[in-house]
Amino acid sequence: MTIFNLGSINVDLVYRVPHLPGPGETIASTSFKKGLGGKGANMSVAIARAGSRCTHIGSVGDDGQWTVDTLASAGVDTRHIHRSLPTGHAVIYVDDAGENSIVLNAGANSCVSSDVVAAALAEAKDTDTFICQNETNLQAEAAQMAHAKGLSVAYAAAPFSAEAVKAVLPYLGLLVLNEVEAEQLQTETGHPISELPVRDIVVTLGAAGCRWYRGGQRRDFAAIPVTPVDTTGAGDTFTGYLIAALDQGKPMEAAIALAGKAGALMVTRLGTAEVIPTLQEVTEAF
């Protein structure tokens, strides 16, 4: 089976800082690293490293061939990444406690072609999965196309937009969002998360673990305690592993457990896509 991921591809500019800068404050970084990132790219790498087949749908500029090559080297199918505007990028500050602050520039991520999405999904079967996030255009259109073909449709509601979530809700089988996003969505819709018309909803809670809703029932999963180095990409790693585990036929409980381990290992590493752990590393670590 294949997981089709309509997702962002960013150049991550990561600065290690003593603390996150406040308004008007200038501080010196202690290190700098340039690498592949973007929620979509991170999830594609996580899916591939978890052992599932992943086809990435996205856009980069002429300056972004190395990002495509990096995805391909991780085992991601990159045939449906096209060229448009300059590649998107993110400026990321990471402090000594592992917390981060991120500024995005969408670039080519805002120019994914509907023809490219259609061409990718023309290859899909009803046993496949489609996933998207909020760092590209065409989420609702692509989700509708995937749903019409019988694919399982998953959605990571970040960066949060209530209107974007509402647009894809009719097509979803799985919704993944963090605690703050869940509260925002509940406020916008006027309904508890458990009452949304989605079969499975997973709310990540950071160091507190995560919460799974199905059929009005709730189950909590504890996090694995680790000392964080960098939380960047941890949520993407969790989601990628979750989708991959479900694709491989694991029940939701086992998929969440594996995703939690992958996310925990990820926060002990500095960086984004290139340091997402492999399945062997996850199983050996825990």
TrEMBL record:
Signal peptide: none
Annotated InterPro entries: PfkB_dom (IPR011611), Ribo/fructo_kinase (IPR002139), Ribokinase (IPR011877), Ribokinase-like (IPR029056)
Reaction catalysed by this enzyme: D-ribose + ATP = D-ribose 5-phosphate + ADP + H(+)
Cofactor: Mg(2+)
Alphabetized UniProt keyword annotations: ATP-binding, Carbohydrate metabolism, Cytoplasm, Kinase, Magnesium, Metal-binding, Nucleotide-binding, Potassium, Transferase
Quaternary data: Homodimer.
Similarity-based family: Belongs to the carbohydrate kinase PfkB family. Ribokinase subfamily.
Listed name of the protein: Ribokinase
Organism, as annotated: Pelagimonas varians
Encoding gene per record: rbsK
